[in-house]
């Protein structure tokens, strides 16, 4: 009975707290007035809602999409604090100075996409941008020579916009079989200053999308199966692809090394298996175990990369 009363009280308190915010109608009207005062009809409200559970837990926060009146194809999005009249990035983590600043960035993005489509031509089926990611759509996965050629063209386009693109670009190589892209190309425009970074990607480095790719997911399942008889738990840390031959991978898997059916009273070894994988035979070619008792867990990725053949190394480290 007490538990039931306590649950009811908690629910009642939550309902009171979350009902104290501005209504959606009031909040939308407030935004419309704000836009008229600050921007004199340049924007039209396309979407205004509570999109996620996170926003529903914050009474005065709303998801907003605005159309640029002079070009309705250009749509900007942000989170809006209706009580404070403040704007935040779509993920809600960072405050944005103004609607105009978001629109400026979006318009610049559209220009970059148009320029990329022009210079890349028929080599790609589609181009998109998401923050510092460029998504290229291909009919099939390109080889190293084509990727190098595309990299140079992409870099030249980005260097035309030094005020808009100030970081390295991560270019997702997307295909019909792997819509998120298995390979990811690093492109460094001159506007990107990495002098203060201790870890730096090599020019034109090819990374692996180890956690969002269908192809990587298939590899992970097979490696877990190969390790099943000797480990209790498994978690992929990193994948490295041969920079010249995309059929070969190294995969780092953090494990609790012990037979799954062994007594729980027996001590387990914690560490990482470094597995060499090839797509030609779709199997593990080689396994090597590194125990956390003798290797630092904190720097394990850097340590393992140093153990790889040079053709797999994608970073340089500065002390």
Could you please describe the fold and organization of this structure?
The protein has three domains: 22-96, no CATH class; 106-180 and 188-196, Alpha-Beta Plaits (2-Layer Sandwich); 214-317, no CATH class. Helices cover 30% and strands 34% of the residues. It is built from seven helices and 16 strands. It has a five-stranded antiparallel beta sheet. It has a five-stranded mixed beta sheet with strand order 6-7-8-9-11. Helix 4 packs across helix 5 (144-158). It is globular.
Concise structural overview:
The protein is α+β, with helices and mostly antiparallel strands and 319 residues long.
SS-derived structural category: alpha+beta
**Percent of residues in helical segments?**
25-40%
Shape: globular
Percent of sequence in beta strands: 25-35%
* Distinct helical segment count: 7
- Strand line-up in the sheet with most strands: 1-2-3-4-5
Count of domains? 3
Give the mean pLDDT: 88
Counted beta strands: 16
Q: Would you identify the regions where 5 or more consecutive residues have pLDDT less than 50?
A: 9-19
**SSE ordering:** HHEHEEEEHEEHEEEEHEEEEHE
CA radius of gyration: 25 Å
Most strands sheet: 5 strands, antiparallel
Organism: Zhouia spongiae
Protein name: DUF4837 family protein
């Amino acid at each position: 009975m007490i538990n039931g009363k306590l649950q009811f009280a908690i629910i009642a308190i939550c309902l009171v707290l979350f009902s104290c915010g501005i209504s959606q109608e009031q909040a939308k009207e407030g935004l419309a007035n704000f836009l008229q005062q600050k921007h004199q009809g340049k924007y039209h409200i396309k979407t205004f809602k509570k999109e996620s559970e996170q926003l529903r837990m914050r009474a005065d926060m709303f998801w907003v999409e605005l159309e640029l009146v002079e070009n309705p194809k250009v749509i900007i999005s942000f989170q809006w604090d209706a009580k404070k009249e403040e704007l935040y990035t779509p993920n809600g983590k960072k405050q944005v100075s103004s609607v105009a600043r978001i629109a400026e960035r979006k318009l610049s993005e559209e220009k970059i996409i148009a320029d990329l489509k022009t210079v890349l031509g028929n080599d790609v089926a589609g181009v998109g941008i998401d923050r510092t990611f460029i998504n290229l759509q291909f009919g099939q996965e390109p080889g190293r020579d084509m990727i190098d050629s595309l990299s140079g063209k992409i870099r030249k386009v980005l260097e035309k916009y030094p005020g808009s693109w100030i970081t390295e670009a991560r270019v997702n190589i997307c295909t019909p079989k792997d819509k998120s892209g298995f390979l990811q190309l690093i492109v460094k425009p001159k506007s990107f200053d990495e002098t203060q970074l201790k870890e730096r990607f090599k020019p034109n480095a090819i990374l692996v999308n180890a956690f969002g790719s269908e192809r990587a997911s298939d590899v992970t399942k097979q490696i877990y199966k190969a390790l099943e008889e000797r480990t209790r738990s498994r978690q992929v840390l990193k994948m490295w692809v041969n920079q010249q031959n995309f059929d070969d991978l190294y995969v780092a898997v953090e494990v609790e090394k012990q037979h799954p059916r062994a007594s729980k009273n027996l001590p387990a070894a914690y560490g990482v298996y470094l597995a060499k994988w090839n797509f030609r035979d779709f199997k593990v070619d080689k396994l090597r175990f590194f125990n956390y008792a003798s290797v630092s867990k904190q720097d394990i990725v850097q340590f393992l990369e140093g153990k790889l053949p040079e053709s797999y190394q994608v970073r340089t480290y500065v002390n």
